[in-house]
TrEMBL record:
Residues 2-197 form the Trypanosome variant surface glycoprotein A-type N-terminal domain. It comes from Trypanosoma brucei. It is found in: Cell membrane. GO terms for biological process: symbiont-mediated evasion of host immune response. Residues 266-292 have a biased composition (Basic and acidic residues). Residues 266-295 are annotated as: Disordered. SUPFAM superfamilies: Variant surface glycoprotein (N-terminal domain), Variant surface glycoprotein MITAT 1.2, VSG 221, C-terminal domain. VSG forms a coat on the surface of the parasite. The trypanosome evades the immune response of the host by expressing a series of antigenically distinct VSGs from an estimated 1000 VSG genes. Residues 231-329 form the Trypanosome variant surface glycoprotein C-terminal domain. The keyword Glycoprotein applies. This is Variant surface glycoprotein 1125.2068.
């Protein structure tokens, strides 16, 4: 419908009233602007009002009225119709503007990249471990940047080839045809792709976090209460209770229900109490110990003896964060 300069197809050229409406005059809106029946002067709908001086426009200016009735004007070029058709004028202009590319200041080859100002700022942080504004070791940057990309072909592959060749499935294109990222030149299409993949990455991140939480949960031993619940779920069915023998379940003939073995239950409850005490006093065994005595469940870190269980929890938390971050990248 919207072309580079104006409307296209059936709306490009003027459509006269008989073509537009099939000469049907039963609708009052399809009447001459000199005797517009929609503003009839009496109840007979025979004496219309002249609206020729105002030229009413409908559907954003797509439809209008002339001396014959309802028409579509010549709209192939809307550049000069800013006053008469402002909505269509700016719609066409917005469509054309959305295709304009941004100025690309990215170095076109590896030689230019070694001295590019924008790349230097990133290289100071990533390759030199400096602030992006610190220039004291800039003399090292050309060789550092070159060593990262190796040669010009690898630089161009990272810069353009790998990105431009990224496949875009047909479900995400306007014409339902597969394409590549480099062939898309419309900003609005790129924005749609950005939000599509941003949402996909969020879902991927959430799934990764859920999986990691499940792994951690599986690694934790079940409490007496949890194991008891598993046994109780069989109810009064003795045969089903026997199937859970490996899970330490036994059928109580007096209470007529499946229960956790008494000795197993007592053992788990005792272990639970001991673990709870350790959690409440995680550093009681390790605190203030000298380095030579910091062994067993203790670990020497940052000149202090610490409980190794705390360090393991920190490491697991870091693994969750790392895996979640990787899910965003791939």
């Amino acid at each position: 419908l919207i072309g580079p300069a104006g409307l296209t197809g059936a709306f490009a050229n003027k459509v006269v009233t008989n073509t537009l409406t099939g000469a049907d005059k039963r609708c009052n809106i399809n009447s001459p602007n000199t005797a517009f029946l929609l503003n009839a002067a009496d109840s007979t709908d025979q004496n219309g009002v002249s609206i020729a001086a105002r030229t009413p426009r409908m559907a954003g200016g797509l439809l209008t009225i002339d001396g014959t009735g309802l028409i579509i004007e010549d709209l192939a070029d809307t550049d000069s119709k800013k006053t008469t058709h402002p909505y269509l004028h700016f719609a066409v202009k917005a469509k054309a503007t959305s295709k304009l590319g941004f100025s690309d200041s990215t170095p076109n080859d590896l030689a230019a990249a070694t001295t590019a100002a924008d790349l230097k700022r990133s290289a100071r942080r990533q390759l030199l471990g400096k602030k992006d504004s610190e220039t004291s070791e800039d003399a090292q940057l050309p060789s550092k940047i070159k060593s990262v990309f190796s040669d010009n072909d690898k630089y161009l592959a990272i810069l353009r080839k790998n990105i431009d060749g990224m496949p875009i499935p047909k479900e995400l294109t306007d014409d339902n045809q597969e394409t590549t990222l480099g062939d898309i030149d419309e900003v609005d299409h790129l924005i749609r792709l950005y939000f599509h993949y941003a949402d996909a990455n969020k879902r991927k991140l959430q799934n990764a976090l859920n999986e990691l939480r499940n792994v951690n949960k599986k690694q934790e031993p079940k409490s007496a209460q949890e194991k008891e619940k598993e046994c109780n779920e069989t109810g009064a069915d003795e045969d089903k209770c026997k199937e859970l023998k490996e899970k330490d379940c036994v059928f109580n003939t007096e209470s007529k229900k499946c229960e956790l073995k008494k000795d197993v239950k007592e053992k788990l409850e005792k272990e639970g109490q001991e673990n709870k005490g350790k959690e409440e006093k995680p550093t009681s065994e390790c605190k203030d110990k000298p380095q030579k005595d910091c062994t067993g469940n203790c670990k020497w870190e940052n000149n202090t003896c610490k409980d190794s269980s705390i360090l393991l929890k920190k490491q697991f938390a870091l693994s969750v964060v790392s895996a979640a971050f990787m899910a965003l990248l791939f």
